[in-house]
Write a structure and sequence with these properties.
The chain contains twelve helices and no strands. The protein is mainly α and 293 residues long. It folds into two domains: 112 residues, no CATH class; 104 residues. The protein is flat, with a radius of gyration of 26 Å.
């Protein structure tokens, strides 16, 4: 009972603080509102849409919207960019995390006030799950997108050699390649070229940010090499051929390692699906017959 009262008091203080801070910070800018609306409309799960709706007012707080140059902030930004979750926006992720924490604490306070042990255990599991939900989405998205990037990058590097060998400059060659491929690498290259077209003075930053958004060291090295060749006017064809060969070799080694793990996974899957059926069909009648004797 004391624990539930303490949690409720902490929640009241937390909600009151964010409500006061939200009133002082005003409405969201139009670009932020559009980003939230797009994220809510693109969310596939009903739980995700509800959490985004609940977290949206929290994003108006100046605490959430405050930019930070700490290493933790930059690491989180890189992780979100690599996953593509929550529109790759740190403020949106923190808002959803705060909303999930409040919901988890409310559930924990409600179940702690009850006398049922089973209800308390269920509340603990639910609270832990809802608090870990945002980071779980980010981790799964990062793993999925990283695999896509590592698969797409060798193809992009190999196809990019054709327009460069034909005499195109690096930006036109990148545009030519991005228009003929799909996947996260082509999408980030198109985004990078749009940024350069709108603001040519941000050309160097656009190359660096494209590699950062893809979230793997191979992509960062790839775009850094392209930027150096572009700014220094050096020939990139030979260097690109070596990078493409290294990327293809690394991709082959990863797939080979995954194939080596496949028999173990198959054994586990077969065991999980067939052992219960085997027990019911063979061992259970034998046990019943022995019990009848």
């Amino acid at each position: 009972m004391i624990l539930s009262l303490f949690i409720v008091a902490a929640l009241v203080v937390l909600v009151a603080f964010f409500a006061a801070d939200t009133r002082n910070s005003g409405e969201l800018p139009p670009e932020k509102r559009e980003m939230w609306e797009k994220a809510i409309s693109n969310e596939r799960s009903a739980v995700g849409r509800i959490l985004l709706q609940v977290a949206r007012p929290v994003s108006r707080s100046s605490i959430v919207a405050k930019e930070s140059a700490t290493p933790q902030w930059r690491t989180l930004k890189r992780k979100l960019a690599a996953s593509g979750a929550f529109s790759a926006d740190v403020e949106m992720f923190i808002s959803v995390q705060v909303a999930c924490t409040v919901i988890g604490l409310m559930t924990l306070a409600f179940t702690a006030a009850s006398d049922s042990k089973n209800m308390l255990i269920g509340g603990l599991f639910f609270s832990f799950g809802i608090v870990a939900y945002p980071w779980n989405i980010v981790s799964k998205g990062a793993q999925r997108r990283t695999a896509q990037v590592l698969d797409n990058l060798p193809d992009f590097a190999e196809l990019l050699q054709m327009p460069l060998a034909a005499g195109m400059g690096i930006p036109p060659a990148l545009r030519f390649t991005a228009e003929r491929l799909t996947g996260p690498v082509a999408e980030e290259v198109s985004r990078m070229l749009d940024v350069i077209r709108i603001n040519p003075s941000e050309e160097a930053a656009a190359f660096v940010e494209a590699g950062e958004r893809l979230g793997v060291p191979e992509a960062r090295a790839f775009f850094t090499a392209l930027l150096q060749s572009h700014t220094e006017g050096a020939s990139v064809t030979a260097n690109l051929a070596r990078q493409a060969e290294m990327l293809r070799s690394a991709s082959f080694q990863r797939k080979r390692a995954d194939l080596k793990k496949l028999p173990i996974k198959l054994v586990l899957i077969i065991g999980m699906h067939f052992l219960p059926a085997l027990f019911i069909l063979v061992l259970l009648p034998t046990a019943l017959s022995l019990g009848g004797m």
